[in-house]
Amino acid sequence: MTLIKTSLLNAIAVVIKMLTLLGINKVLAIYVGPAGYAAIGQFQNAVQMITTFASGAINTGVVKYTAEFHDNEEKQHTVWRTAGTIAVTGAVFTGIIVAIFSKSLAALFLKDESYSGVFVWFAVTLIFFVLNTLLLAILNGKKEIHRYVVANITGSLFALIATTFMSMQFGLYGALVALATYQSLNFCVTFTLCYKASWFKLGFLFGAINKQTAKNLMKFTAMALMGAACIPVSHVLVRNHIGINISWEAAGYWEAMWRLSSAYLILVTTTLSLYYLPRLSELKTPAEIRAEILYGYRFIMPAAAVSALIIYLCRDFFIHTLFTAEFKGMEVLFTWQLIGDFFKICSWLLGYVLIAKACFVLVMISEIVFSAFFYFFIFLTTNELGIESTSIGHSVNYFFHFVFMFIALKVKRII
Question: What are phi and psi for residue 92, nearest 5 degrees?
Fold first, then answer.
């Protein structure tokens, strides 16, 4: 499966996901407004942290070792059983904890204990959320692109339908419940797709934990937990800082800009995870890895640059079409955010090499350093730069992240 073929197949799911994300953005803009956007960002960061902890943060490892053991099904099954047992155990334990402390979590992330019910809904459906992501990781590692695409399309449609209905009926509370549960609903579809595959049996997901496999997966657990802690925490801190020092509407502008940025880059980011992680896991020599990186840059970077230029030139159209007139204040964020997105893709392509080669110490160091740098840059420049400190900080942060990744790969003699 080549990069271009993978991208074309993935583009089907990505176009639908992009359209549904933009539709969700419009629905949320109408029914919750800029301040509600800030609350949704806080909640989604909480979900990201909790689900990563609950799953044991092993899904990246599942992709890597499923791809690496493509010629040994017994080793693949050992990886899946170990991962499945860890994920289910973690999900049950974490779900109980989330339900018990739902009021405290609502107060911490949403500043209102009356939203504790949202976390209860999330706790109840957490096990299906975790199993869905595990099955998607297996499909990714097996390079079952067609099934992976169908599963993602279904998830996108569930997200749009659930968020639209719940937002219209119950406002912000309904939107939060929908965002907490829709991926769990998608488990039924993903499981059915896997169950119909000749290589899959339910028994492959559960069983005794293999110590060596668990040890290998723990490297990815460490990396993923660090990412799940650092990036969402830095975003929560930035949102709080902007909300307190400028306004919660301004924090909503930044959240809207971030969501738009994520939406238009989704083809690039999903292709990196869908194609590059399994592919890089298979490659052995520096020459092979260098060739694959250069191939990726020739294909991905022009696409990212053109997309950014289109978004910038049509920024007024996107603000009024995808959001509402209330979001006019986000216009000042576009220039530096789009520059930062370009460096983000440059650095991520190199970062996937470190992940594929299990250089977990370097990955964790980069997560800590650059998440902290992002927050402190904004913290120190908000008085001078205002809301633009967020997008300028994004750009500066990922430029240095790119430089760090390049130097790290050279020092480790991976490329």
Answer: -65, -45
